[in-house]
Amino acid sequence: MPDSSFSTPPQKVLVTGAAGFIGSRVCALLHEQGYAVTGLDSFNDAYDVRLKDWRWAQLEKRPGLELHRLDLGDVAGLTSLFEKQASGGSAPFDAVINLAARAGVRASVEFPAVYVEANVSGSLNLLEMCRKFGVKKFVLASTSSLYGKEHPTPYREDMNTDHQLSPYAATKKAAEAMAYTYHFLHGLDISVLRYFTVYGPAGRPDMTPLRFTQRIREGRKITVFGDGSQSRDFTYVDDIARGTIAALLPVGYDIFNLGSDQPLKLSEVIGLIEELTGRKAQIDYRPWHPADMMATWADISKARRVLGWEPKTDFRTGLQNLVAWYEENRAWATQIDTD
Length: 339
Ligand SMILES: NC(=O)c1ccc[n+]([C@@H]2O[C@H](COP(=O)([O-])OP(=O)(O)OC[C@H]3O[C@@H](n4cnc5c(N)ncnc54)[C@H](O)[C@@H]3O)[C@@H](O)[C@H]2O)c1
Fold this sequence. Notes:
The strands form 4 sheets. A 7-stranded parallel β-sheet has the order 3-2-1-4-5-6-11, with helices on both faces. A two-stranded parallel ribbon has the order 7-10. A two-stranded parallel sheet has the order 8-13. The protein is globular, with a radius of gyration of 19 Å. The longest helix has 22 residues, at about 110-135. Strand 5, helix 6 (about 165-185) and strand 6 (about 190-195) form a beta-alpha-beta unit. The N and C termini lie far apart (about 50 Å). The protein has a domain at about 10-200 and about 235-260 and about 295-310: 3-Layer(aba) Sandwich (Rossmann fold), CATH 3.40.50.720. The protein has about 350 residues and is of the alpha/beta class. Helix 9 (about 265-275) crosses helix 11. It has helices spanning about 20-30, 50-60, 75-85, 105-110, 110-135, 165-185, 210-215, 235-245, 265-275, 300-305, 315-330, 330-335; strands at about 10-15, 35-40, 65-70, 95-100, 135-145, 190-195, 200, 220-225, 230, 235, 255-260, 265, 280-285. Nicotinamide-adenine-dinucleotide (NAD) binds near residues 16, 23, 73 and 102.
């Protein structure tokens, strides 16, 4: 088996999903830390593209940060990007951080095939590029949704993850398995990151923090599945971006939970949005969705120990930042499709 160890920290990093919520923050932070950053994104219309345009525009202001509109399904396009970056004989990138994916649980029940294409085939295409072009380090975004519903909280990385509740989670499990195979056969050094409900400014409109902030602020109804007692380990996007960069260190193949370790009930989140926006929520309660998990909570002792990572932003501060971002961008953010 090839030796996967490397001694110098990665300097040239490719980030996929760069117009995405987490990817754009990872690109920005890498750039601030002096990395040579290349970002790519397909700009799919899984949700309102204006958010992707806004995040991309922030990245475009950063000198030297290279951006490409490219789909992970476009093998010829990926090959030419890797070839171009490899000119001079060195590896095109020291590391690839794969954040591009179809995300979201409920939509995956309706459109499973697009999830397989982006999350499984897309990850495979990138792993192949890394193998062919000698990229040694691969970071894969995975999800707390993998834990299903059979475990007591908090979730540890060594718990069984054989029973996914949604096509989304199943595709992430498949990508983890494929990544392991590339580590085993080809010596790629791989960090798998299981993120727990990420929130923050310019977040995803299919997730409750932005969706509820917009709707409560504008006096529109919000829908709650179940009674609001479901809980999530809400984790601030900048903490996630720091953890993702920390995961560039060599680990062989390892899996890390990145969560806040401070789960909150949805009803508590709604209460805080009401307080910060000064508006009362109008709530339409609907039956529980079977693909949803009742609770998520990360055991983050491994990320603390191995990556030296610690979440720093408490939920009130993070939500204040999101609400402030919404107010600053309200001229267009009122129109973001949050249905
Ligand atoms: N946000 C969360 O709470 C959360 C939780 C767990 C895991 N994750 C994972 O983290 C990663 C980033 O999530 P996010 O919340 O930023 O989602 P996002 O949808 O905002 O970002 C993903 C980006 O990938 C791009 N993309 C999708 N398919 C692509 C393809 N085939 N080729 C190129 N680009 C493509 C999209 O256009 C989008 O901009 C995803 O892998 C997601 O599954 C997110």
